Amino acid sequence: MKNNTSFAAIVIFLIIACLILSPANNMKEQTAFQTSAPKDQTSADPEIQTRIPQSIVMKKPVRLCIPSVHLSTSIIPIHLSADGQLQVPKSSEVAGLYVDGVLPGEKGNAIVAGHVDNYTGPAIFYPLKHLKPGSFVLLFDQNNQYLKYEVLAVQSYYTQEAPLEKIFGDTPEKQLNLITCTGKYDRKKKEHEKRLIVYTRLVE
User: How far apart are CA 64 and CA 88, in angstroms?
Assistant: First the structure.
Protein backbone atom coordinates (compact mmCIF):
# COMPACT_ATOMS: atom_id res chain seq x y z
CA MET A 1 0.00 0.00 0.00
CA LYS A 2 1.38 3.38 -0.92
CA ASN A 3 2.06 5.78 1.94
CA ASN A 4 0.92 9.26 0.97
CA THR A 5 2.17 10.91 4.15
CA SER A 6 5.82 10.18 3.41
CA PHE A 7 8.45 12.90 3.29
CA ALA A 8 8.24 12.73 -0.50
CA ALA A 9 4.58 13.73 -0.37
CA ILE A 10 5.38 16.73 1.80
CA VAL A 11 8.12 17.79 -0.59
CA ILE A 12 5.67 17.52 -3.49
CA PHE A 13 3.41 20.09 -1.93
CA LEU A 14 6.06 22.48 -0.62
CA ILE A 15 8.20 22.42 -3.75
CA ILE A 16 5.49 22.08 -6.41
CA ALA A 17 6.53 24.49 -9.13
CA CYS A 18 3.98 27.23 -9.70
CA LEU A 19 6.46 29.43 -11.46
CA ILE A 20 5.65 31.86 -14.26
CA LEU A 21 6.59 30.02 -17.43
CA SER A 22 8.05 31.26 -20.65
CA PRO A 23 5.52 31.31 -23.52
CA ALA A 24 8.05 29.37 -25.55
CA ASN A 25 7.39 26.36 -23.32
CA ASN A 26 3.64 26.46 -23.80
CA MET A 27 1.70 24.14 -26.07
CA LYS A 28 -0.72 25.67 -28.52
CA GLU A 29 -3.84 26.60 -26.59
CA GLN A 30 -6.88 24.52 -27.42
CA THR A 31 -9.70 26.42 -29.04
CA ALA A 32 -12.44 23.80 -28.57
CA PHE A 33 -13.71 22.36 -25.32
CA GLN A 34 -13.41 18.59 -25.48
CA THR A 35 -15.45 16.25 -23.27
CA SER A 36 -13.76 13.13 -24.54
CA ALA A 37 -10.28 11.83 -25.22
CA PRO A 38 -8.54 13.33 -28.28
CA LYS A 39 -9.16 11.35 -31.48
CA ASP A 40 -5.47 10.58 -31.86
CA GLN A 41 -5.38 9.11 -28.34
CA THR A 42 -8.36 6.77 -28.57
CA SER A 43 -9.12 3.63 -30.50
CA ALA A 44 -12.82 3.89 -29.73
CA ASP A 45 -15.53 5.83 -31.49
CA PRO A 46 -15.19 9.39 -30.07
CA GLU A 47 -18.97 9.58 -29.77
CA ILE A 48 -19.06 6.55 -27.44
CA GLN A 49 -18.10 7.31 -23.87
CA THR A 50 -18.23 4.53 -21.29
CA ARG A 51 -18.12 5.03 -17.57
CA ILE A 52 -15.54 2.76 -15.96
CA PRO A 53 -16.72 0.37 -13.23
CA GLN A 54 -15.73 1.80 -9.85
CA SER A 55 -13.55 -1.23 -9.10
CA ILE A 56 -11.25 -0.33 -12.01
CA VAL A 57 -8.06 1.71 -11.54
CA MET A 58 -7.21 4.17 -14.31
CA LYS A 59 -3.47 3.84 -14.77
CA LYS A 60 -3.10 6.11 -17.80
CA PRO A 61 -5.67 8.91 -18.01
CA VAL A 62 -5.16 11.09 -21.08
CA ARG A 63 -7.64 13.93 -20.53
CA LEU A 64 -9.21 15.87 -17.67
CA CYS A 65 -12.49 17.71 -18.27
CA ILE A 66 -14.45 20.02 -15.96
CA PRO A 67 -17.59 21.05 -17.88
CA SER A 68 -18.81 23.69 -15.40
CA VAL A 69 -15.74 25.89 -16.02
CA HIS A 70 -15.12 24.81 -19.65
CA LEU A 71 -11.78 23.24 -18.78
CA SER A 72 -10.35 20.47 -20.92
CA THR A 73 -6.71 19.45 -20.95
CA SER A 74 -4.35 16.61 -21.68
CA ILE A 75 -2.80 14.75 -18.77
CA ILE A 76 0.81 13.62 -18.65
CA PRO A 77 2.54 11.48 -16.00
CA ILE A 78 4.78 13.27 -13.51
CA HIS A 79 7.28 11.86 -11.03
CA LEU A 80 9.68 12.91 -8.32
CA SER A 81 13.17 13.98 -9.37
CA ALA A 82 16.30 12.63 -7.72
CA ASP A 83 16.25 15.48 -5.20
CA GLY A 84 12.63 14.83 -4.23
CA GLN A 85 11.00 17.61 -6.22
CA LEU A 86 7.91 17.09 -8.30
CA GLN A 87 8.58 17.22 -12.03
CA VAL A 88 5.61 19.36 -12.99
CA PRO A 89 4.68 19.81 -16.67
CA LYS A 90 6.85 22.24 -18.59
CA SER A 91 3.81 23.41 -20.50
CA SER A 92 1.25 25.53 -18.68
CA GLU A 93 -1.52 24.06 -20.87
CA VAL A 94 -1.42 20.47 -19.62
CA ALA A 95 -1.96 18.84 -16.22
CA GLY A 96 0.25 16.28 -14.53
CA LEU A 97 -0.84 13.13 -12.67
CA TYR A 98 1.53 12.00 -9.92
CA VAL A 99 1.78 8.37 -11.04
CA ASP A 100 4.05 7.18 -8.23
CA GLY A 101 1.30 7.74 -5.67
CA VAL A 102 -2.37 6.80 -5.55
CA LEU A 103 -3.91 6.34 -9.01
CA PRO A 104 -7.44 7.39 -10.02
CA GLY A 105 -9.92 4.74 -8.91
CA GLU A 106 -7.78 3.59 -5.99
CA LYS A 107 -8.58 4.29 -2.35
CA GLY A 108 -6.64 7.32 -1.18
CA ASN A 109 -5.80 10.75 -2.55
CA ALA A 110 -4.73 10.80 -6.19
CA ILE A 111 -2.96 14.05 -7.13
CA VAL A 112 -3.17 16.14 -10.31
CA ALA A 113 -1.14 19.36 -10.51
CA GLY A 114 -1.21 22.20 -13.01
CA HIS A 115 -0.10 25.79 -13.48
CA VAL A 116 -2.36 28.75 -12.76
CA ASP A 117 -0.65 31.28 -15.03
CA ASN A 118 2.37 32.11 -17.19
CA TYR A 119 4.01 35.17 -18.76
CA THR A 120 1.09 35.71 -21.09
CA GLY A 121 -1.79 35.27 -18.65
CA PRO A 122 -4.00 32.49 -17.26
CA ALA A 123 -2.86 28.88 -17.59
CA ILE A 124 -4.83 25.64 -17.63
CA PHE A 125 -5.81 25.52 -13.93
CA TYR A 126 -6.75 29.20 -13.67
CA PRO A 127 -10.50 28.34 -13.71
CA LEU A 128 -10.26 26.06 -10.65
CA LYS A 129 -10.97 28.94 -8.29
CA HIS A 130 -14.45 29.23 -9.81
CA LEU A 131 -15.44 25.64 -9.02
CA LYS A 132 -18.28 24.98 -6.60
CA PRO A 133 -19.18 21.89 -4.55
CA GLY A 134 -21.30 19.59 -6.67
CA SER A 135 -19.38 20.26 -9.90
CA PHE A 136 -18.02 17.24 -11.74
CA VAL A 137 -14.49 16.35 -12.81
CA LEU A 138 -14.06 13.71 -15.53
CA LEU A 139 -10.95 11.68 -16.28
CA PHE A 140 -10.80 9.92 -19.66
CA ASP A 141 -8.50 7.10 -20.74
CA GLN A 142 -7.32 6.33 -24.29
CA ASN A 143 -10.42 4.19 -24.92
CA ASN A 144 -12.77 7.05 -24.02
CA GLN A 145 -13.81 5.40 -20.77
CA TYR A 146 -14.08 7.77 -17.84
CA LEU A 147 -14.15 8.17 -14.09
CA LYS A 148 -16.50 10.78 -12.64
CA TYR A 149 -15.57 12.77 -9.53
CA GLU A 150 -17.69 15.27 -7.61
CA VAL A 151 -16.18 18.42 -6.10
CA LEU A 152 -16.44 18.42 -2.31
CA ALA A 153 -14.66 21.69 -1.51
CA VAL A 154 -12.29 24.32 -2.93
CA GLN A 155 -9.86 25.74 -0.39
CA SER A 156 -6.66 27.82 -0.41
CA TYR A 157 -3.82 27.76 2.10
CA TYR A 158 -0.54 29.51 2.70
CA THR A 159 1.99 26.92 1.63
CA GLN A 160 3.47 26.31 5.08
CA GLU A 161 0.02 26.05 6.68
CA ALA A 162 -1.52 23.49 4.35
CA PRO A 163 -3.12 20.38 5.93
CA LEU A 164 -0.80 17.79 4.38
CA GLU A 165 -2.60 14.86 5.98
CA LYS A 166 -5.89 15.94 4.42
CA ILE A 167 -4.32 16.47 1.00
CA PHE A 168 -1.96 13.49 0.83
CA GLY A 169 -2.92 11.27 3.75
CA ASP A 170 -4.52 7.84 3.68
CA THR A 171 -8.29 7.69 3.35
CA PRO A 172 -10.75 4.86 2.70
CA GLU A 173 -12.41 7.06 0.07
CA LYS A 174 -11.44 7.21 -3.60
CA GLN A 175 -10.48 10.84 -4.00
CA LEU A 176 -8.77 13.11 -6.50
CA ASN A 177 -7.19 16.37 -5.39
CA LEU A 178 -6.36 19.05 -7.95
CA ILE A 179 -3.51 21.38 -6.96
CA THR A 180 -2.48 24.74 -8.34
CA CYS A 181 -1.31 28.11 -7.04
CA THR A 182 -3.17 31.20 -5.96
CA GLY A 183 -2.59 34.48 -4.14
CA LYS A 184 0.10 37.06 -4.75
CA TYR A 185 3.15 36.22 -6.82
CA ASP A 186 6.52 36.72 -5.10
CA ARG A 187 9.03 37.72 -7.78
CA LYS A 188 11.98 37.06 -5.48
CA LYS A 189 10.89 33.54 -4.59
CA LYS A 190 9.37 33.04 -8.03
CA GLU A 191 6.24 31.45 -6.63
CA HIS A 192 2.73 32.26 -5.46
CA GLU A 193 2.07 32.66 -1.76
CA LYS A 194 -0.75 30.11 -1.55
CA ARG A 195 -1.87 26.75 -2.88
CA LEU A 196 -5.40 26.09 -4.12
CA ILE A 197 -6.79 22.60 -3.55
CA VAL A 198 -9.91 21.18 -5.17
CA TYR A 199 -11.06 18.15 -3.20
CA THR A 200 -13.12 15.64 -5.19
CA ARG A 201 -14.52 12.16 -4.57
CA LEU A 202 -15.32 9.38 -7.01
CA VAL A 203 -19.04 9.10 -7.76
CA GLU A 204 -20.07 5.51 -7.01
Answer: 16
